[in-house]
Amino acid sequence: MITLTFWATGIIITSWIIPxxxxxxxxxxxxxxxxxxxxxxxxxxTSTLWNNLSMNMGTDSINSPLIILSCWLIPxxxxxxxxYLNNNSHIDNNIFVSLIIIIIIVLIITFSTTNxxxxxxxxxxxxxxxxxxxxRWGMNKERIEAGYFFVFYTLISSLPLFISLLILYNNTSNLxxxxxxxxxxxxxxxxxxxxCIIAFLVKIPIFGFHLWLPKAHVExxxxxxxxxxxxxxxxxxxxxxxxxxxxxxxxxxxINNFLIIFCCWGGVLTSLICLTQTDLKAxxxxxSVSHMSFMVAAISTNTNWAINSSIIIMIAHGLVSSALFFxxxxxxxxxxxxxxxxxxxxxxxxxxxxxxxxxxxCANLGLPPLPNSIGELLAFSSIINxxxxxxxxxxxxxxxxxxxxxTIYLYLNSGNRFNxxxxxxxxxxxxxxxxxxxxLPLLLLIINPNIIMN
Length: 454
What we know:
Elements: H1 2-17, H2 23-41, E1 51-54, E2 57-59, H3 63-80, H4 82-85, H5 90-112, H6 116-125, H7 127-137, H8 143-172, H9 177-180, H10 190-203, H11 212-219, H12 222-246, H13 248-275, H14 280-299, H15 304-335, H16 353-365, H17 371-386, H18 390-413, H19 429-447
Antiparallel strand pairs: 1-2
Helix pairs in contact: 1-2, 1-5, 2-3, 3-5, 3-12, 3-15, 3-19, 5-6, 5-7, 5-12, 6-8, 7-8, 8-10, 8-11, 10-12, 11-14, 12-14, 12-15, 13-14, 13-18, 14-15, 14-17, 14-18, 15-16, 15-17, 15-19, 16-18
């Protein structure tokens, strides 16, 4: 982890030294080497609980896939932003690249730390660079309002978590994840346990805590949307998994009865909201809320299948949602609109883009053998095993998810295009490489899903 942190810091220093004409190539090359370093450093050795322990940092089978996912998507997001920032000044481009690398440094520390206080600091430190990305390089003037929503939702929900961690430290004198794994002696009341998890429910987010997410996604630049959907939202799921190991008694006896039903019902309602959306990015953002609501319901069951399914869903959804936002940006750069009803006839304009839309739409609805279906199968099995009444909600959720996922493809690829929608150029090599980098990990998980399962 220290090696990755120093290498990422070196990328920031290099971006300010090299001339402008070499900025994008050098940043992508160095961040690609960061991927190789992460793959060599982290392994999936489940015979021991923690690996590479040093300076309150370590890896295991839960955080290793998330760290590799974070490193994998950094060169992809930089490559996706080249066309958007090509006309900006050299200083603006340097700041943009530096903010993205700062996010990855904070994510590496957050995912790999074994101390919950350091985890909280990293959890909140991603707020500042993400806020700057949204408010400085956002699409429209509403980006300021989106920044307000993002800040206040995050800060208000994080204060109870911080107070709860201080109370836990005062009671146990230890917040180390590695040490407390074998000696689980956290005896706290239900109110304090609820305060511990509410910040993660907002960050994921689930239905009812999600109002900031569509605004942030719609106004953020393509890199901001990709990082937010693929990586930052997974911090909430990771924190919920870690805390559920220690709060299992409170969750099992008192909290999960309400949380599972609420999340399943929220997933169904969010799927219905997706059917009413006219903005392409807003539809993709609401679909993330639907998927994450069902994932939280699975984590609340506290079973091995649920933990495995949540990890698979987070990795697969991170790749798929990032690809969908990138596809939406490809069309937005050419047409200047994200409105579904007038963004028709892609099959008459592009040669290969409809194929990419079909692949990632099928992945979003969980079509076998894509890894999304593996994670959702395990998650739904855990939820139904908890109580058979959830079968009705899960059936509605699966049906509605399939409908709005295919709706995206049908709206964009059916019918004739309008006269003012004159787009004649196909996607270029840079965009094709970006889409290919999203599909390759999914193919690897199809062949061997055990590489990210505990």
